[in-house]
Batch of 2 targets.
Target 1
Amino acid sequence: MSERLRIIGGGLAGTEAAWQAAKRGGEVDLYEMRPRVTTPAHQSEELAELVCSNSLRSDSMENASGLLKEEMRRLDSLILRCADETRVPAGIALAVDREKFSQKVTESIEKNPRITLHREEISSLDETHPTIVATGPLTSPALSAEIARLTQGKYLYFYDAISPILHGESIDMGTAFMGSRYGKGMEDGGEGDYINIGLRQEEYEDFHHDLLHGEKVALREFEKPVYFEGCLPLEEMASRGKETLAFGPMKPVGIEHPETGETYHAVIQLRREDLTGEYFSMVGFQTRLKYPEQKRIFQKLPGLGKARFLRYGSLHRNTYINAPRLMRNTLQLKRYPNLFMAGQLTGVEGYLESAATGLLAGIYASQHLGGEAIQTAPKTTSFGALTNYIIETQTKNFQPMNINFGLFPPFQGRVPRKERKKRVTERSLQDLDPWREHVQAPPE
Ligand SMILES: Cc1cc2nc3c(=O)[nH]c(=O)nc-3n(C[C@H](O)[C@H](O)[C@H](O)COP(=O)(O)OP(=O)(O)OC[C@H]3O[C@@H](n4cnc5c(N)ncnc54)[C@H](O)[C@@H]3O)c2cc1C
């Protein structure tokens, strides 16, 4: 490789990207602004600091995050190697001693002769120089302004407003019903796109009372200015008036029960979240209710008595771009092919997913610098499924996502639900191998 690769941000994604590029012969300049400038959540000057929980989630292959870990281990991930070496007992979860973990990552980067670590804040980007931007959910304000410039402003977001996602099979369809508002798209006998839950007046009033009194996560000081009127949390809307929700995300107009013709005081709609139709998100239900409270309150709703949650709702500070509009599946910005994005900035959610996109960006940028065509990970692997989600999602409100089995492409023909995870895992690891051979680093 001729040119040096710049990587901005020494977090989970940036360190992994630097490691992968250096393995492939690249000369890397890694820029980390701490300790000179810090973020509102980081506490130390170590690289790859875990800002909250010390868990990288399940390590079981029964779980999509276990599969992603296995793929990362097969690509010699620095983050996974350091996590395995500093593991603490936590059942099937991969939890780490956070200080030892970050120290190990820092040492590995500092000792690598191909990586030069600069403790410096970067506030402008040179679109002509090969660069990976991995500055995370708390990207410094100066660089955020620069990213906004390069992404036409309106495609850069500053917080997550996440609605809960439920397993469709856990919803009682004897009570809930399919349909679309005003029967849109159902003219030729279709069942409609949404699962609907109708609430009678008394049920709505109970729900409103629960929202007002349920326990909420306190906002940190730096998260207070994040609301904007288009995306208020459920409980905030509830506090503005008893009927605010019934005129907002729970408006009942144009919806009636397809068999009984009943209309409702308020309706909750759930939208399909994945290609296989296994998961449904509660539309407009971003919330700061604590997770056990979400379970307690939402399970009281008609049809949701046994609802299982794939993801709970949340609302927190997070800088990320509208990847489906701006990025290619090579993690390059469409307009600026020398600029690669990695980590939480791309719209993935979580330590593990951030590191995984860092790993991919390190490989892809190495291929780009070497003048090769970029060979992307197959869509059937968890690397590919995760990238596919952030590139292909067709929603108006693009929201960050963790890896999960619903992101993988469906099989041709019917696969019994019980066998699906096993089949996805087998296919993923089988398809990973030829790609891995192709992008393998040369032996040291
Ligand atoms: C408060 C909070 C709590 C979270 N808790 C969890 C959790 O418990 N579990 C989980 O899985 N995920 C959690 N996340 C989400 C996410 O997984 C982590 O933030 C993760 O660290 C993201 O990885 P990253 O590499 O994209 O960013 P980071 O790990 O944050 O790395 C980015 C790095 O870039 C540096 N930087 C920023 N701007 C500049 C600049 N201009 N120049 C140079 N350096 C710069 C930062 O100092 C930082 O070291 C949390 C996020 C936040 C904000």
Target 2
Amino acid sequence: MRATPLLISAILLIPGLAGLLGWPAAGVARVQGPCSDCHTIHNSRQGEPMTYFFDRDEGQLVTGGDPNPALLVTGCVGCHLGVNSAGSMPYVLSLEEPDYGLTGTGGNTRAAGSFYWVAHGQDRKGHNVTGLADWDRQHGYTPPGGTVLPAQLTCAGAAGCHGSPEVATPATALQGSHHQEKSGWRDGGTVATSYRLLQGVQGLGDPSFEWQPSASQRNKYYGYHRSGSSDPAPDTISGFCARCHGDFHQATGDGSPWLRHPVDFDLSQGEPLEEYLGYNGGDGTANPYNVAVPLATADTSDQVPATIEISAGDQAVVMCLSCHRAHGSPVDAMLRWDYKSWPANGYNGCGVCHSSKN
Ligand code: HEC
Ligand code: HEC
Ligand code: HEC
Ligand code: HEC
Ligand code: HEC
């Protein structure tokens, strides 16, 4: 077991690669700047190797290592490692503990949370992705509800989440999508036109990746009420999770109520209806959206409404990310909030939907 390697020599990295490279200004939804900021043609500059990688034991970026695919100066973690601030550069891991707060909506994490906790050996608090965490001691390479992956999880590709699952190498699986414009509704047609480069998934990404989000400045997740026992559709965000986890919360035969919690279920179909029309203190006609307990929608417009009309249907869909963060959180099972510690601490996210139980 490695002891908290990330804490060592944190100073060496700051400002690190982010300072070196030309990160986009807020609002520019693709990479920009001189090619040489991010690519190296011969993997050598003034006799020094030009690749950086994130050394978990050293807890810093170091030069050396094998050349990266796409002639990049570093891998996914090298570029996406840093402390978030306002702006559009999404950091998914930092050397110091992020400020998550009770719900991860007011500090310095973004929509997917952070890999920080799982990178510190807390297996239940994130996806154990290669290069930033050891493999999960409990689950191994098997997603609960699904079938074993060919290897430990990677950021992208066949054993990963982003890009094309048909391509083995993570950088290649992204297919040049970093260079393409990514604003407006994503229809899932190609990697670059998929929500957060998750191939085939629809949605609308907040350009700041939910930096301190609000009801009208947030991601818009795609989903709709499904009938009977059909699987979540692959272009919905729950369908994306189901690619690996199967229909996790719909599985039968297990005693745990969590395994049965409805997903891709619209609040307008709930019983008793008043309970769900009361989402976040509304009456079903104009409920204020709560970014700590997000809902999916079938509305594919570019509008991001601050209130939702639940009674209209398919605007308030329970999805995997209503309760979970995609990368990780300080709470077990990568939950968005610690409902078990409520009311002393934690946050009653369950009660936002189960409005008669808050
Ligand atoms: C050389 C640096 C660099 C490398 C290497 C890199 N990224 Fe990025 N990535 C960026 C920058 C810069 C942005 C922000 C562009 C923007 O504002 O949309 C970005 C944005 C993203 C986004 C958000 C896209 C969106 O929806 O707007 C995802 C997802 C992503 N990267 C995943 C990856 C994965 C997975 C890898 C490894 C295969 C990777 N990145 C490697 C620099 C890099
Ligand atoms: C801020 C970082 C950044 C800058 C600047 C940048 N790139 Fe890239 N580029 C990436 C990343 C990350 C990938 C790999 C992931 C992907 O393909 O999305 C990539 C992939 C590529 C690829 C292979 C994928 C494809 O499109 O076929 C080519 C070619 C490429 N870049 C060329 C260039 C050129 C030419 C420039 C300068 C005009 C440049 N890049 C500037 C980050 C950058
Ligand atoms: C590419 C496959 C893949 C995808 C897609 C995927 N997961 Fe996972 N997930 C795994 C694997 C493998 C594990 C077990 C190992 C681990 O935790 O890293 C896991 C574990 C988990 C866990 C348990 C964490 C723990 O250790 O207790 C949760 C919760 C979870 N995933 C939720 C999600 C959600 C929500 C999504 C969609 C946003 C999702 N997963 C998408 C592969 C995947
Ligand atoms: C995004 C909204 C939402 C959130 C958040 C939410 N629920 Fe639910 N929950 C629902 C809906 C909708 C139903 C289905 C009602 C129906 O079947 O008529 C439901 C059903 C249930 C059921 C009944 C399951 C069954 O098989 O009948 C339980 C128990 C439950 N939720 C507990 C919780 C707990 C505990 C949490 C917090 C960890 C939670 N819920 C969070 C919307 C939500
Ligand atoms: C209503 C809230 C809610 C929704 C929606 C939800 N989950 Fe969960 N999930 C939970 C809770 C709570 C736990 C933790 C149960 C526990 O710790 O006993 C959990 C646990 C898990 C685990 C971990 C199981 C393990 O063995 O560690 C996985 C994997 C998972 N969920 C995947 C999903 C996927 C995939 C979806 C969407 C298809 C989803 N969840 C939707 C609340 C939810």
